[in-house]
Amino acid sequence: MGIVEIEKLSKTYHIGPVEVHALYEVDVSIAAGRYVAIMGPSGSGKSTLLNLLGCLDQPTSGRYLLGGDDVSRLDDDMLSQIRGARIGFIFQSYNLIPQLNVLENIEVPLYYQGISAQRSRDRAQELGQLVGLGDRLRHRPTELSGGQQQRVAIARALANDPLILLADEPTGNLDSQSGEEILRILDELHGRGKTLIVVTHDPSVARRAQLIVRLLDGRVERIERNGGGVG
Fold this sequence. Notes:
The protein contains seven helices and eleven strands. It has one domain (4-94, 159-229): P-loop containing nucleotide triphosphate hydrolases (Rossmann fold). The chain is α/β, with parallel strands linked by helices. The protein is globular, with a radius of gyration of 18 Å. The protein has helices spanning 46-53, 76-86, 102-112, 117-130, 146-158, 176-191, 203-206; strands at 4-15, 18-30, 35-39, 61-66, 69-70, 87-90, 164-168, 195-199, 211-216, 219-225, 228-229.
């Protein structure tokens, strides 16, 4: 069994009297330590799938097993606990808290998990060093470049040692050099055994993944391994 198991996962939104089928009976299995890219045109269901994988939303039907536990029907409080303990998020817009410095931003998830101040500080310093910001730990987001802010976001996502890392267009707001640096960090994390799931429209980003899940009109169009189609 994979660390992520999706079985017949569907999501329908009701907009007035209209039903919008954002996802329809999606089946995907992701083994621990895999690097996966999710691709597809606008409206294909990428964001909906990411929200479901991140426990930010609940499916209309189907099952989602994360680490062997069915999280499909959990209430909001339980989903919040799962997000805090098992999932790391990396967003295109970084989502850092401008009033906090680098260390404090990395510490935020640890605070919500009730980790002691000293352990949180030690962990944040370790992760700040890991992403190459050892000399910027006291700086605030406005004093950092976009690439540096995304490094902080990656460190924050790692704070709780999550089961999976979800990245939504992680290089979308960056120049090519900064984007390449962020992708190298993701490569290194994958090399350390992290499970990465990246939503991207960029083929050069997707080519780094072991598995590419292509969506079309809310369905899995095909799944490719190492750049080769497998149907």
